[in-house]
Structure formats: structure tokens, C-alpha cells
Design a protein that fits this description.
344 residues, alpha/beta, Rossmann fold, 2 domains, 7-stranded parallel sheet, 34% helix, globular, PnrA-like
């Protein structure tokens, strides 16, 4: 295997198994190649969340188009257990899919556990690190991209009041919050920042647009005119609410939400989006397996290498692009260090 250098990063019903497991724990039907294609297990919200999962699916689509790799896609449901996730991943590996990829930090434990039972299969996990030797951990500098979102929000706000909505209050989403708040503070020290979460520890926070609508309405009523939401599919509700009030802006996440067909009627209110190139990471892994040089270990996708970036669709940040470019350069050069945890 081609092992990537370690980089420290922070943070369903299935078909019957085709054959029993052998005594050593390895599947007797494990393909060990890319014969069946890539097996992708989405987090809650599924492919059409217009955000995080959608980004991963674009990587699979590209692999199908450019490499001729077939795929099988499966989706998580709210309230799943570790056993649910393990079963989904095992069913994909058992059926001969390679690589098998879990999309989202919730798959961190299950991917690394199941991977040990299928040593000939390469596994991948988005937003979590690798502990098993045949796992590729795809992690991102969300805080760096979110810093730029904070700069944009501060420069575009007329009321000097901006908001952040997180789906679930955990270490990963706190990175989005921390970067955003730092970007706002260092651009407009007088700005007031309101940060709120939909749920403390329930993954439904990534699949509850109604909850995000309520949070966004409260913020708009309080005079906040720019809202950045990092909450997967829930963010669609926030964007819809912002679009209903003239003179306010929404900032999207993970995918370029201005270009999402399902959000087309609101795109005039989407200032920009903090994009995580999950599609690039997924494609990198699929191609490596097809080339028989499977990637393993952890890879951190940063602002410096465009692993995270701000979208420019709509032209709404064209007038402040020079300032955004200057901020990006300071981060890339190390002049500005972006924190990963919100300041107390």
C-alpha cells in the first residue's frame, strides 16, 4: 500500500452475506480489488442534502465518468448505533466493493473496526482519522475556510451583527464556529457575533431544516443580517429563511450551495459557501485503489492547497475578493493562526 504521511488532525437493512466469515475474520468473498467498484456509506441526509454528502457523491460520480468505476450508495438514518454503521460497511466489503468509504465523523470508529476484518479491502473515512492500516482518513481544515467566511460576513454586514448556526455541538462543528468568529473579530472588532446550535449531541442536527429555520428567524429578528450555517441538510432551512428577508445574506457550507439545483430559488441570497473538497478526497482514494496503489494513513486538506475554499458563484464577493485573498495568504503563510476551538 502507498501510505500517506501521518498528519495530526483534530478532530439499514442489508443484503444477506454472500458467504460466512473465515476463522481469521477475513471474508471468504472479499474481493481485494476494485471489481465491484466503490461502496459509499452516507451520513444522515443522504446524497441530496445539497451539502456534505452531496460533495462526496460528486467524487464518486467523477470516478464513474473518468475511471469507469461503478458504485453502490447507502444512507444512514437518524439515531443509528455503531452496530448499524458496522453492518452497513461490512455488507459493502463482503459484497466485494473496494474502496468502502464512510462519509462523516460518525463512521470513524466503525470504519477502523470493520477494516480489520477485511485486510484486502481499502477503507476511507471523511472527517476522521485512520487507526487501522488499510484506512485512509480524509480530514479538512474547516476552521481556515470558516475564517474567510467570517471576513466576508464582517465586510458585508450592514448591522455589524452576524450569526453562526451549528448542527451538533461537537468538536468538528466547533472548528467551523471558531474560524468564523475569529475571522469576524479580526476584520470588524465591533461586530456582535451570535453562535447557536440546533442540538447538543443528536445527529438529527444535520437533518432538521425546520430547527434551522427557527434559529435563523430568531437571529434575523434580532437584527443579524449575515448567517453562516454548518449543519448539513438542516442548513437548507436556514438559507430558505434568510432568502425571505431582503438585505440579508446566508453563507453555505461544504458544497457550493449557490449551484445546488434544490436551492436555486434562494441562490440570490447565498453570499458564498465554505467548500470542503470532499469530492477531491474521495476521487483521490478511488483512483488510488484502481491504480493498485491504495492510499492509507491521514491526509489533511488545507486552505493552502485548496482543500477548503470560498466559492465565488454569483459574484457577490467580487468587491471584497482582494481582502479575502490577502486573508488567505496570511493563513497559508502562517502569519495568521486560526484556532480550532471557540474562545470562551
Amino acid at each position: 500500500m502507498h501510505r500517506v504521511s501521518k498528519i495530526v488532525a483534530t478532530g439499514v437493512a442489508t443484503a444477506a452475506l454472500a458467504a460466512s466469515l473465515t476463522a481469521c475474520g477475513e471474508s471468504s468473498t472479499e474481493a481485494g480489488g476494485a471489481d465491484k467498484g466503490v461502496g459509499l456509506a452516507f451520513d444522515v441526509g443522504g446524497r441530496d442534502d445539497h451539502s456534505f454528502n452531496e460533495a462526496a457523491s460528486r467524487g464518486v460520480d467523477k470516478a464513474g465518468k473518468e475511471l469507469g468505476v461503478k458504485s453502490k450508495l447507502m444512507t444512514a438514518k437518524n439515531g443509528e448505533t455503531e452496530a448499524d454503521r458496522e453492518q452497513r460497511l461490512s455488507s459493502l466489503a463482503e459484497a466485494g466493493y473496494n474502496p468502502v468509504i464512510g462519509v462523516g465523523f460518525n463512521y470513524g470508529k466503525s470504519v477502523n473496526k470493520v477494516a480489520k476484518d477485511y485486510p484486502k479491502t481499502t477503507f476511507g473515512v471523511v472527517d476522521s482519522g485512520a487507526t487501522a492500516k488499510n484506512v485512509y482518513g480524509m480530514v479538512f481544515a474547516e476552521h481556515e475556510g470558516s475564517y474567510l467566511a467570517g471576513v466576508a460576513a464582517a465586510l458585508k454586514s450592514k448591522t455589524h451583527k452576524v450569526g453562526f448556526i451549528g448542527g451538533v455541538n461537537n468538536a468538528l462543528i466547533q472548528k467551523f464556529q471558531a474560524g468564523f468568529e475569529q475571522g469576524v473579530r479580526e476584520t470588524d472588532p465591533s461586530a456582535k457575533i451570535t453562535s447557536e446550535y440546533l442540538y447538543a449531541n443528536d445527529d438529527k442536527g444535520f437533518n432538521d431544516p425546520a430547527a434551522a429555520k427557527g434559529k435563523a428567524k430568531g437571529m434575523l429578528d434580532a437584527g443579524i443580517d449575515v448567517i453562516y450555517t454548518a449543519a448539513g441538510q438542516s442548513g437548507n432551512g436556514s438559507i430558505e429563511t434568510v432568502a425571505g428577508k431582503k438585505g440579508t445574506w446566508a453563507i453555505g457550507v461544504d458544497s457550493d450551495q449557490y449551484l445546488q439545483p434544490g436551492l436555486a430559488q434562494y441562490k440570490g441570497s447565498i453570499l458564498t459557501s465554505v467548500m470542503k473538497n470532499v469530492d477531491v478526497a474521495v476521487f483521490d482514494l478511488v483512483k488510488s485503489v484502481k491504480d493498485k496503489k491504495p492510499l492509507t494513513g491521514d491526509k489533511l486538506y488545507t486552505l493552502k492547497d485548496n482543500g477548503v475554499r470560498l466559492s465565488t458563484s454569483g459574484g457577490f464577493i467580487d468587491d471584497i475578493q482582494a481582502k479575502l485573498d490577502a486573508a488567505k495568504e496570511k493563513i497559508a503563510s502562517g502569519q495568521v493562526k486560526v484556532g480550532e476551538s471557540p474562545k470562551k
